[in-house]
C-alpha cells in the first residue's frame, strides 16, 4: 500500500525549537482512501473557538492554515473527500480528531475505552481535550483488543472494511484508549505511535528530551505507569530496526519519512 505522510497541523508552542506537527497518514488502498489521524480540519481553521479551548490555543499556538487540513491535501492529490472510507485515530484529542467532519463517508475507528472517555468525560480537562463538536454526525466503530499479537504488542486485527495490513496497537496511557496504528506499506511496517511519546529522543539510546515537551507529556497523561512502560517497549521495538516507529508531533521524524 502507498502511504503518504502529511502534516495536518503545525503548532508553535513556546520553548520548542522548530515547533511541532500533526503527523497524519493518507493510505491508498484498493478499496478507497484511509486516514490515520486528521489533525486540525476546516472547522478548527474557520472557527477555532468552537473546538480549541483558549488555554490550548495559547499553549500550542496552532497555525491553522487551511492548506494543511487533511481534506485540502486529499483534494490536492485529485481525490474527493468522499473517497476517504475509513479513518483510524490514535486518540480523540482535539489536535488529532479535528478533521473528522470533513469526511462524510468515513467510518472512524477507535478503541472502546477512547470513545467512552470522550463521551463521558470524568473531568473538566477531559471535556476540554475531547470537544463534543468535533464528533457531531461522525460514524464511529469501536474495537476491543482480544489477545492477538503484533511484534510482541497486543493488536486489534481484521478491522472490518480495512486491509489486513492495517492494525490498531493499544498504547494506553496518554489517554484511556490511546493506540498506535500499524500499517504495512510498500516499504515495510510503520507504527504511528500517536502521543505515546512527543520527541524522537525519548525512544533513542541514550534517551533525550526537550523540557517543554517532557512537561507537556506529563500534563496530558492519564495513566502514567502505562505511558512510561509503553515508551520503553517502543524503544525496544525501534532498536530492533524492522519497524519504522514515529510519533504524531516530531517534525524531524516527519521530514525523514515525508
Ligand atoms: Zn497530540
TrEMBL record:
Q: Name one GO molecular function term.
A: hydrolase activity
List UniProt keywords, sorted A-Z: Hydrolase, Metal-binding, Zinc
Keyword Ribosomal protein listed? The answer is no
Ranges for the Metallo-beta-lactamase domain?
21-249
- Pfam families noted in UniProt: Lactamase_B
Q: Which family does it belong to?
A: Belongs to the metallo-beta-lactamase superfamily.
Q: Which PANTHER family match?
A: BLR3078 PROTEIN, QUORUM-QUENCHING LACTONASE YTNP-RELATED-RELATED
- Protein name per its UniProtKB record: Metallo-beta-lactamase domain-containing protein
Protein source organism? Lentzea guizhouensis
Amino acid at each position: 500500500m502507498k502511504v503518504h505522510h502529511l502534516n495536518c497541523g503545525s503548532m508553535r508552542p513556546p520553548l520548542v525549537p522548530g515547533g511541532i506537527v500533526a503527523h497524519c497518514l493518507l493510505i491508498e488502498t484498493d478499496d478507497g482512501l484511509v486516514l490515520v489521524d486528521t489533525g486540525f480540519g476546516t472547522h478548527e481553521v474557520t472557527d477555532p473557538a468552537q473546538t480549541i479551548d483558549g488555554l490550548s490555543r495559547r499553549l500550542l499556538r496552532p497555525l491553522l492554515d487551511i492548506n494543511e487540513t487533511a481534506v485540502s491535501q486529499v483534494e490536492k492529490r485529485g481525490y474527493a473527500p468522499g473517497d476517504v472510507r475509513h479513518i483510524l485515530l490514535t486518540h480523540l484529542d482535539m489536535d488529532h480528531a479535528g478533521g473528522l467532519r470533513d469526511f462524510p463517508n468515513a467510518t472512524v475507528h477507535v478503541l472502546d475505552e477512547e470513545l467512552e472517555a470522550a463521551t463521558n468525560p470524568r473531568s473538566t480537562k477531559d471535556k476540554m481535550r475531547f470537544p463534543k463538536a468535533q464528533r457531531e454526525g461522525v460514524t464511529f466503530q469501536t474495537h476491543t483488543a482480544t489477545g492477538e499479537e503484533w511484534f510482541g504488542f497486543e493488536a486489534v486485527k481484521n478491522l472490518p472494511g480495512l486491509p489486513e495490513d492495517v492494525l490498531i496497537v493499544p498504547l494506553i496511557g496518554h489517554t484511556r484508549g490511546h493506540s498506535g496504528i500499524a500499517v504495512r506499506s510498500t516499504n515495510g511496517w510503520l507504527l504511528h505511535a500517536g502521543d505515546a511519546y512527543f520527541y524522537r529522543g525519548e525512544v533513542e539510546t541514550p534517551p533525550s528530551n526537550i523540557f517543554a515537551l517532557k512537561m507537556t507529556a506529563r500534563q496530558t497523561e492519564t495513566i502514567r505507569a502505562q505511558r512510561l512502560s509503553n515508551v520503553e517497549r517502543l524503544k525496544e521495538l525501534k532498536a530492533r530496526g524492522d519497524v519504522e516507529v514515529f510519533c504524531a508531533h516530531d517534525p524531524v521524524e516527519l521530514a525523514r519519512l515525508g
